[in-house]
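Lab notebook, bench 4. Still working through the backlog of constructs that have no structural model yet. Next entry is a single chain of 230 residues. Request: give me the structure tokens for it.
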Amino acid sequence: MTSTVEILYCILMNQGNDHPCVSYLVFLFFIADRSHPQVMKTQTTIANVAIDFYARRSHFIVLPLIVILVIMLLRFSVKSIDECPIQPMISTYMIVYGIIHLLLIVLTCIGMLNTYYIYPRLQYTNEALPRFILLCVLVCRLILLVFGFAWLIVGSVWIFEAEHKGVQWSKPAHTTTYCRSELYRLAFALVVVNYIIYGYLVLSFLWKYISRKLKNKQNSQSDLSMTLID
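Model written out:
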């Protein structure tokens, strides 16, 4: 998830106008008017940022580790699917959470394949194809990001509802309050960690955006002062 926000942040903050979100939306519909200067500028910015991201060699180390962790999470969640009668949907939350991250890994692999093999071979003959693949990957990642955040909220409701009902893991016979300790604690920890990550990303985005605006304002005032002096 964080990689998606990182790409989107770089895209939005590397624009030269006052409304960077407009540039991103323009790019999504660049097929309608590819000759428009702002569209061409936004295309180039997004392509460069995304290609730089997918060209990182750290993906070859990080991705296998994430795959292993996600598979372990899915395996544990499936095995524990009937071990939380107080709120059976907690296991479902964990399974869908794992699937979302598997899909993000697949999209990352497609982006890397596009960056390392397709784009270098076609950038001078058929550049539209790698750009289209890049667009599809970014749009799919954005959709998964939005769905993942919505799913996080839904999962939070289920987890904290079980907490409110007095969840316990020492008496399996009491099915109205029982949930397997490892399952519940792992789900609870994932929810908390995800909220911390989202909160950090939002605050980081706002801080950098405000800092950029203030810097631009100071530069404008400096230019105006120099003009008045002249």
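Notes after review: The chain is about 80% helix and 0% strand. The first helix runs from residue 2 to 13. Flag for follow-up if needed.
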